[in-house]
Write a structure and sequence with these properties.
mainly alpha, 13 helices, binds zinc ion, TniQ
């Protein structure tokens, strides 16, 4: 690693942090990026996690933040484990530390998933005031999260996809280099605010594992749960599809946002 890493901003994604570093160091080409940061040249820069960083990068990161804290607070680690068992979370953390690239490739994602990085137009204004520049926030990238938890306005999709192999230019896309939509559309649905508040509260208390998996599994046979959740939220103007709820209750694949909506429902209705 040529230079010292800058400090990482509050809730900044590792991708955003690496982009700022690489660009300020004048490192643009794909093979230069790989050589600078990763174990081998086939490792692409990750938008949601860290990638297979080499020992030199790891040592430099540790001067700023521990790898464990980086994974927990600046990547999608908790979003993929927040409603899973401790064993699963520990194994996932271990796999990310051992082979981050392969672990990320192995994550099953639904086809319908929104695959673009998101941003909040109000956070951009505030970040520029506070830090002199805007950056990609980690919590904005929570799958299906529709509004900024701080400003309660609609998150915009960027043109940056987080899956697949983009052009080199796309591999290094700090938020400040995007065509940004500055329209601010505030959410008016109170229930949506409540789900997002619940989800973010869980996110920030991530070391507390009060998952209560049994609570949901007790209801495995409770076919009414699915329709109760759907009709409850429908009454409040929020649509969840039945298959999405089913997959949360009966499968291992947990979508953090949908799980938060289910738990919020259980909290207030049971
Ligand atoms: Zn915001």
């Amino acid at each position: 690693m040529t230079n010292r890493l800058p400090s990482i901003y509050d809730d900044e994604t590792v991708y955003s942090w690496f982009c700022r570093y690489l660009i300020s160091s004048g490192i643009w080409r794909e093979h230069e990026i790989a050589k600078e940061l990763f174990v081998n040249s086939t490792n692409v820069i990750s938008k949601l996690f860290i990638g297979n960083i080499n020992k030199d990068t790891e040592n430099n990161i540790e001067k700023v933040i521990s790898i464990e804290n980086l994974l927990k607070h600046h990547t999608m680690f908790y979003v993929y484990t927040g409603y899973c068992s401790n064993d699963y979370a520990n194994e996932f953390l271990y796999n990310l530390k051992t082979d981050c690239y392969k672990t990320e490739l192995n994550i099953r994602r639904p086809r319908s998933e929104n695959r673009q990085l998101k941003y909040c137009p109000m956070c951009i204004i505030e970040d520029r005031k506070k830090y002199g520049e805007a950056y990609w926030h980690n919590i904005h990238q929570i799958r299906m999260l529709p509004i900024c938890p701080i400003h309660k306005c609609k998150l915009h999709n960027s043109e940056i996809r987080y899956i697949g192999y983009g052009r080199v230019r796309e591999k290094l896309s700090p938020l400040e280099m995007m065509n940004l939509n500055s329209d601010v559309e505030y959410n008016t649905n109170e229930m949506l605010d409540k789900i997002v508040e619940y989800a973010i509260d869980r996110y920030y208390k991530q070391d507390i594992k009060d998952i209560g998996i049994d609570y949901l599994s007790i209801r495995k046979e409770n076919w009414g749960l699915r329709s109760n959740i759907i009709s409850f939220y429908k009454k409040h103007g929020i649509n969840f599809c039945g298959r999405e709820i089913d997959s949360m209750v009966y499968d291992n694949r947990k979508n953090f946002y949908t799980m938060s909506a289910i738990y919020y429902y259980l909290k207030i209705c049971h």
